[in-house]
Amino acid sequence: MAKLGSKEKPIVVRVRSEERGRYVAHVCAQHGWDYIIGFANTEDISDLEKALNPPQPVRSVKVGRNDPCPCGSGKKHKQCCGSG
Fold first, then answer.
1. With contact defined as beta carbons under 8 Å apart, do 44 and 13 qualify?
2. Domain boundary assignment for the chain
3. What are 65-81's pLDDT values in tens digits?
4. What is the DSSP string of 18-78?
5. CB-side neighbour CA atoms (13 Å) of 62
6. CA 46 to chain CA mean position, Å
7. pTM for the whole structure
């Protein structure tokens, strides 16, 4: 899958004003991203926000069978949420 901001998947934004469009173009140029800017009555810069703040991968913590249960019950994990 192509990365957001690449030639295959450019950042697509809609802005209300030319000034806002110049700002988006400047930010994209600083990062070397390809982009498409359109003008509309409603603004949508969600692609730019996703590129600036990419989602972090979810990390899970492995709980041992004899460790206290993370639910806070005070029981061992194997006798609480780990049973089943």
1. yes
2. 1-54
3. 788 888 888 888 888 88
4. HHHHHHHHHHHHHHT--EEEEE-SS-B-HHHHHHHSPPPPP------TTSBPTTSSSSBGG
5. 2
6. 10
7. 0.65
